[in-house]
Amino acid sequence: MAVELKTERKFDTSQFRHYINDWNSVMHCHHYAALYTQLADDAGDLFDGHGLLYAAAEGSIYPVFNNYFSENNITEVDDRVAIIEQLMSFTGMGQLKITNPSSTAGTAEMPQSHVDSGWIKKWGNREKPINSICCGYLAAAFSALHNLPEGSFTVTETQAIVTGADKSIFTITKK
Amino acid sequence: MAIDRQNIIDNLSKIEIRGNNEGLIPAFGVLITQFPTEFWNQFAVRIMNTVSADLREAAWGLLYNAANECGYNTGYGIINSEEWKAVVEPMVEKVPEDILHGAYAVFTAWGWADAEIVELVPNERMVIHAYNYYEADVCPARNNPIVMAPMITGVSSAFMDLAYGKPFPDGFRTFICKQTKGIECGDEFGEFVVTRTDASEDFTFLS
Q1: Confidence (pLDDT) at B20
Q2: Is residue A91 part of a domain?
Q3: Is residue B20 part of a domain?
Q4: Looking at the predicted structure, is the pLDDT value of residue A1 above 70?
Q5: Does some domain include residue B204?
Q6: Which of A42, A44, A132, B29 could potentially form a cystine with A54 if both were Cys, beta carbons 3.0 to 4.6 Å apart?
Q7: Is residue B132 less than 8 Å (CB to CB) from chain A?
Q8: Which candidate, A30, A17, A40, places its Cα nearest to that of A93?
C-alpha cells in the first residue's frame, strides 16, 4: 500500500504566514496562475516567460521533495511517486498520475489541472499547451525521485486540457 | 469601526483546505492553490534579473498587472463568498469602508501580508502598511535596490476599484498604486499608496 502524504499545517501568528510542514505556503487563485501564465506568453522577446515559470516551479519544489523524502525516510520509488502525486492534489494544482518513472524517462497525466481550468474559465480554450508550472513541478519531482541534482530532467507537455483534450500529458526525459 | 480584524484573521486563517478528489480547491468563488511562496518570488526575481535595467519598469508593470486583475476578480469573489457572509459581513456597518478593512483582514488571513489600512480618504486615496510579507523574502539581506512587492501593490489598487469604482466589472483600473517603502529594501515596513488613476499623470512604479 502506498504511503500517505503527511501535512502539518501552521499559521504563524507572529508573521501571519502559513506553513505546510517546513515550507511557507500562500493561497492564490486561478486568476493569478492564469495571469502569470499569460504574462509568460506576453513577454515575447522581452524574456523567456515560460522558461522562467518552469524554472521557478522547479527551483521552489525540488527542496520541498528532497526535504520531505529525507525527513520521512521515503526511499522507495513507488512511495516517492505516491507523495509527488498527492502533493500536487493537496496544493490544488490538479490530479496527477505518473507512469513508468524510470531513472531516464517517464510520463505523467493530469486529468485535472488548476492552470488549464483557470485559463479556460478566464479565456476559453487555446491551441498550445500552457502548463509550464506543472512541467517545472515534474522536473523537480523526477530529480528528487532519483536522488539526482535539480535540473536533471526535461519535461514537455505534449497534450493539454486547455486545447480541448480530456487530459494533459507530459513526457519526462533525462538531460 | 465595526470590523474585528483579529477575529476575521483567527477564523479565516484556520480554514483547513486541501485539494478535492480532482486535486482542485474551489473556495471563495474561485479555484485556490497553496503553493510555496518561493515559487511566486522566484518567478518575479528571475524576471527582474533577466531584463535589462531600462526594461525593469515595464517588467514590474507586468507583475503588477497580473496581481491587479487577480485582486479585482478574486476580491469580488471574496466579498461575495459564503465565507465572507458568515464571518465578515455581520461586522460591516459602514459601506464601503468597513468592507475594505475586512478585505485586508482576509488578505492577512490568506498569508499575503500582515497589512492594514493606515489612511483612507474615501474615493481618493488609501495608504497601506505591511509589516510582514512574503514578497520581502526576495532579499533576505534587506538591501534590494528596488521595491519588490508588485502583488500587494496590484491587489491594493484593485480593492479600491471594488470599493469606489463603478460596479464590477466596470470599475477596474479606476485606481493605481505605488509601493513607496519596502522591507526588502531595509525599511521597517512596506508602504503602498493608492490614488485615482485620472489624478496620477506621469505615474511610474520604480522612480
Answers
A1: 96
A2: yes
A3: yes
A4: no
A5: no
A6: A132
A7: yes
A8: A30
The SS3 call for residue A6 is: coil
Q: CB–CB of A32 and B19 under 8 A?
A: no
Structure-block grid coordinates of residue B91: 461586522
C-alpha distance from A28 to closest chain B C-alpha (Å): 5
Instruction: Let me know if residue B114 belongs to a domain.
Output: yes
CB contact under 8 Å between B17 and A23, yes or no, is no
Task: Please report residues of A whose CB lies closer than 8 A to that of B34.
Answer: 18, 20, 25-27, 90-92
Pairing of strands A105-113, A94-99: antiparallel
The answer to whether residue B31 neighbours chain A at the CB level (below 8 Å) is: yes
Domain assignment of residue A16, yes or no: no
**What pTM, to 2 d.p., does this model score?**
0.95
pLDDT at B202 over 80: yes
| Whether the Cβ atoms of residue A115 and residue A96 lie closer than 8 Å to each other | no
Question: Which chain A residues are Cβ-neighbours of B129 within 8 angstroms?
Answer: none
Residue B205 lies in a domain: no
Q: Would residue A22 count as lying in a domain?
A: no
CATH code where residue B93 lies: 3.30.1380.20
B113: β partners: B133
Kindly report the length of chain B.
207
* Domain span holding position A87: 29-174
How many contiguous H segments (helices) and E segments (strands) does chain A have?
5, 7
Q: Is the pLDDT of residue A61 over 70?
A: yes
Domain membership flag for residue A6:
no
Q: A95, B22: Cβ pair inside 8 Å?
A: yes
Count of domains observed in chain A: 1
Note whether A90 contacts B19, CB cutoff 8 Å.
yes
